[in-house]
Design brief:
5 helices, mainly beta, 36-stranded mixed beta sheet
Length: 903
Amino acid sequence: MKYYISILLLSISGLTFSQVKLEGYVKDSIGNPLELANVIAINKATSALDSYGITNDEGKFRLDLKKNTLYSIQVSYIGMKSMTQAIQTGESNVNKNFTLQEDNALEEVELTYEMPVTISGDTLVYNADSFNKGTERKLEDVLENLPGVEINEDGQVEVEGKVVSKLMVEGKDFFDGDTKLATKNIPSNAVDKVQVLKNYSEVSQLGGVTNNQNNVAINIKLKEGKKNFWFGNVTAGAGDSDQETLYLAQPKLFYYSPDYSINFIGDLNNIGEVAFTRRDYFNFTGGFKRPSLSSGTNINLGSNDIGFLTLQNNRAKDINTKFGATNFSWSPKTSLDIGGFAILSNSRNELQENRSVQYTDPELGIPDEETESNTVQENNLGMLKLSSKYQPNANNQLEYEVFGQMSKSEQDQRFFSSINNNIDQLEETTPFSLNQNLNYYYTLDENNIFALEAQHLIKDEDPFYNAIIEDKLSYGGTAANLGLDDNQSNYNLAQEKRVKSNQLDAKLDYWNILNKKSNINLTFGTILSHQKFNSNIFQFLDDNSRLDVTPPDNNGADVNAIDYNFSDVYLGLHYRLKAGIFTITPGISGHMYNVNNTQFGQKVTDNFFRFLPDLNVIIQLKKSETLNLTYRMQTQFTDVSNFASGLVLNNYNALFTGNPALESALSHNVNLFYYSFNMFNYTNVFASINYNKSIDNIRTESLFQPGNVIRVSSPFNSPFADESVSANGRFQRTFGKIRGTIRANFNYSKFNQFIQNRRSVNENFSQTYRAQIRTNFRTAPNLDLSYRYSIQDNNLGQNSTKFFTKSPTLEFDAYILKAFTFRTDYSYNDFSDENGTINTFEFWNASLSYRKNEDAKFEYEIKATNLLDTRAQNQSNAGNISVSATEYFIQPRYITFRVRYEL
C-alpha cells in the first residue's frame, strides 16, 4: 500500500511541475482594477476547461496551464463586455493583461464555457460539473469537491468555518432543520449549481438591519432535465454473513416544479447503514429558533431522556434500520407558500462495551471500576412539521409553523461492574413535544420596521427506570438508605418520572433607520415557563407486589411533586453603526426575573432585576476577509429537576436530590472569529477562539459510599468561578488539482468539583490536529490522504490521565473506462496512554460499481464493509468526576451486491 501511495504522490508532483503560469491584471477602460472578474482557460484541442481564476482586489489573476498548449482565454465581469483571446503556452510563464469595456447592450452575452465559480455580492455560485470527477453519487460527494465547502465529522455542511443553517432545492426548504438528509440522499447527477448564500436572512425586510454574519444557506439548482419530472434512484441489495442474511432497500424519489415539490426517502437495511439516529432526532430542530436567543437569558428546560447509549461513528455490534421521510412544498399563488415534512424511523441496535473508569482523587477511597455491558435498544421516532408563509406585498410577511416530535424507546441492558457485580437495567420512555411559531413582519415605510415573533412549546416526558441488583451485599448500604425490603432474593427497584413543560417565548422588535450608516433597535420581550415534575421510587417484591419505599436519610422523601414557574420580562436597546470597515453594534437589556418553585407545601421565590450588556464588532478587512468580535453577558437558569428535593434515581449507582434554594448563574462570553476566502490564490482560512466564565455556577456535590462507586449528588451555587477556552482553525490552499488542509482544535476547561466534602479543581485539555491532501483530477484516480492526532489530557484533583489517538486515513476513487467506479477507504487507529499502546484497530471498505455510461439507467455494485473484520474500537472520555477508556464492539465484515436504478 505504501508503495502505491508513493507512486501516486510522485505522479501528482510531476503533474504540478509540468505546468506554467499565466498571470496578469484585469482592468476597465480607465485603468481601475476589476475585483472578482472571472478568467478561464479552455484547451483548444480537448475543449476542456483546464484552469480558472478570479481576480483579487488589485485585479490580478493567476492560472496554472499546461506547457506547449493552445488555449482560449475568456474574461468576464458583471456589467462589462466579455473578452476572448487565444494564447499559446511554451516552456516559461506568461504575463498578459486584459482591459474590459462597459457593456450597454441589452442582449445577454453568451460565453462558450460556463464559469466554475461566480461571485455576486454575498452569493457564490459553483457549477457542479466543473468540479465533478465522475465518481460522485450523492450531493455530499459534490460539495466535498468545492473550494471553501466542507463536510465536518458530524455530517454537517460548513462554509468558511460556519455551519450551514438551511439547505434548499430550487429555493424550497428541504427538511428544514437538518442538512444531512439532503447531502446523503440527493443524487449528484441532478445537481447543476450550488449557490452559497452568505449573510443569509430568511426575512428580506430585516436583511439590512440585522447581523447575519453567521448565517449561511445553500440552494441547489437542478439540471434542466430534472425539473417537472420525477428523478432519483432506487437501490436494492443483498448479501450474506456468518450471522444472518443481509438486505438493503433504498428508494429516493424527487419531483420539482415551479408550483410544488415532493420528495420521498426510504431506507430498509440490516447492514449498519444508519439513515437516522436518536442523536439526529434530538438534534433535529425543524428550523425553529428561540426568539430570545440573543436576549441574554438562557433557560434550560432540561432533557429527561433515559440513559441511552449512542452509536459511535454510526457503528454498533448489530444495527437494523427502517426509515421513511417525505417533504413537500406548494405555492397555490405567488403570495402563499405551504410546506412541511414527516419522518418515521425504527431501529433496533445491539451494543457491547467494556469500560475502565478512574475516579477523581484516589485519596478519597473511591475504587477504580471495570464494567461490561450488553445492550439491546429499540427506537421508534416520528416527527411532523407544517409551515406556511403569506406575503401579499413587500411590506408584509406572516408565518406560522407547527413542529411535533414523538418517540417510543426502550433499552434493555445486562451490566457487570467489578464493584457491584451483575445488574439488569430496563429503561423506557414515550415523550412528545409540540412547538408552534408565529411571526409577523411589517415595514411601515423606508425608515420604520416592526417584527413580532412568538414561539410556544409543550413537552411531556415520562422516563421509566428499573434495575435488578443481584449482589445484595454490595448494594446493602444503598438499600438501607432507600428503605428497601432486604428479605427478597434481589433488589428490584424502579422509578416512575413525569416532567411536563410549557413555555412561551415572544418578542416585539422595532427598528428605526436613522440613515444609511446607522439604525436603532428596540426590543420588548418575555419568556414564561412552567414545569411540573413528579417522580417516585418503589421496589418490586418476589411475589410481584409493589412496595413504595421510604428513605430514612432523606426525611422519607422518595417522591417528588413540584411546580416550577419562571418569567422574564425584558426591554432591549441596540444601536448599529457602520463606519468605514467597521460595523459596531453595542446593546443593553434590562430584565425583570421572577422564579419560584413549590413543593411539600413550601414555596421558594427569587425575584430580581439585572442589566445585561452585549457588543458586536465586525471588521470587513476586504470583501472576502472579515474579523468578528462578540461579547455577551448571560443569566443562566436551570430546569425543574435540579429544584426537586425528593430522592431521584438517575441510575442504580447515581442518586440525586435537588435544592429548592438554587439561584441563577452569570456568565461572560467572548468570541473572536476570523475568515478569509481568497479565490485568487485558492486559499481559505478561518479561526475562532471562545472564552466563557461562569459565576455562581450550579455544581454538584457528590458523596460516595466508602469503597464503592455508588453516590448521592446534590446541586448548589458554587462560589468559585468555572472557565473554559476553545479555539479552532483551518488553513486550506489549492494548487491546481491538489488541495491541502491543516486543522487544529483546542479545548480547555477548569471547573470546581466537590466530592466527599472536599473541593478539587479539575482541568481538561484536549487537542486535535489534522493534515489532509486531496486531489481532484477529472481523468486520473483521486486520493484523499489525512492524518489525525489527538491528545486528551485530564487532571481530576490528584488523578491525572493522558490518552493519545493517532489515525492515518486514506480514501481512493477512480473512474475507469467511463464505466467502472472503484472506491476504497482505509483507516488505522492507535489508541494509547503514557505507558504505551492500549489497542490498535483498523477499518477497510471498498466498492466496485459498473454502469454502461453516465446516462445508463442501471448500475451494479459490489460493496465490502469492514474487510479486515475488525470487531472493536476504542475511545476515551472525560466527565465531571471520572475519566474512562472504552472498548466498543462493532459489526463484522459484510459483503453485499446492489443494483441501482436511475429514474
